[in-house]
Amino acid sequence: MRGLKSSLLVKLLAPYLIALVAVAGSLYAYSDAVVERFHLATLAEGVLREAHLVGALLPWDERGPALDRRCAALAADVGARITVIAADGTVIGDSDAPSATLENHRERSEVRAALSDGDGQAVRVSASVHRGLFYSAWRQSRGDEQRIVRLAVAMTTIQDARHRIRMAIWIGIVVAALA
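and the corresponding structure tokens:
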């Protein structure tokens, strides 16, 4: 009799649990992608706005250590790494490293996009700090002169939001399975 009851229980619960796992897996994948897209779009809009403000505050006639210092002062206020790049890709100012030591940035995807379209974004692991960063670059013009003002912010906010959504989904799965 005991074997019959457990067999019946398995037959009743198995489809429910399989359906629960399928729905939860789909929800997990979908919500993860939606959260990332939403936060990236929001981040892109805000960082581009900050790049415009930073560009307006940075002088055009400084390069090297003097511009590095100005970038560092502004970076502390906006909470982002600031890099100023000449139209040929030469880094002329940076908030986190001496600009003279940095390689040419002309081939960075966000810089290429900014040079051709006016602005560009990219997400990648930074070669210098070895963590995921969101980059937003904006082409600034003054007469015939052009430069790129690029801001980089850590992806931790987006990763934290994705983690919270994942935890909520898994807690919901456990509660639904126990119910």
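(Above: one complete record from the training split.) The chain is about 55% helix and 20% strand.
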